[in-house]
Amino acid sequence: MHCPTTCFRLTWFDHTSSYPGLIGMRSSLCILAAVVTGLFVVNVGAAQEPPPPADDQRELPPVGDWRLKRQCIEAYDERDYATAEQACKPLAEKGDVEAQRKLGMIYLSGYGVFNTEKRAEKWIRKAAEQGDPQAQFTLGTMYLHGVGVAKLEPFAAQWIMKAAQNGHVEAQETLAYMYLVGQGVEKNPSKAVEWYTRAADNGYAKAQYNLGVLYYKGRGVVQDVDKGLRLIKKAADNGYEEAKKTLEMIGKP
Length: 253
Prior knowledge:
This protein has helices at 28-36, 63-77, 81-93, 97-109, 117-129, 133-145, 153-165, 169-181, 189-201, 205-217, 225-237, 241-249. It is mainly alpha-helical. It has a domain at 183-252: Tetratricopeptide repeat domain (Serine Threonine Protein Phosphatase 5, Tetratricopeptide repeat). Helix 4 runs antiparallel to helix 5. The longest helix is centred in the first third of the chain and has 15 residues, at 63-77.
């Protein structure tokens, strides 16, 4: 997605940072707007869907709930948030984690309904507490930037870590950056590399690029220019524009 110009970004030759070249954290406007509108493609793995019981006998919801669930999902996907709110809210009140997350995102977006960050926080927290990785990441981001809650970086790190452990690649990459610069957690370049590697192995191009920069420049790891270039090229092959620009700048198209 194209982030607003207010979004924070470090460029390849930005020597104001301890880690020049890294693409850092975006502002709350950019991150939360992307989360709300569904523009982040994330891998939440199997953690979002618990395994069925051994006898595969599931308790099916009432027919009315199925209809509401379908309406909730379809209206949300079509960005008809006023209709989505009406359909999702009864399900959210019954504990449906997806409906809770979507309802929170609707309130956070302010599209078609009265925007209230406090109501958003309430429902996103409920979904996060039920183990939903996207909700965990969003709640962590809200704490990181003080959106609907007090700005508390340690709380942000806790929720982002939960999402990362549940396979959310955006959270993995964000947590890596937090460890790298000591934001909400104790600075630990080794853990930063570990989480960048997880996200990169999951195919997340931004993490591949940032990990490549670390290896190329020897920041937090033993310098390995060849490995750094391979990772940056992989990110470029996966469509990451910053990686393509970097390869052009260093004469390795």
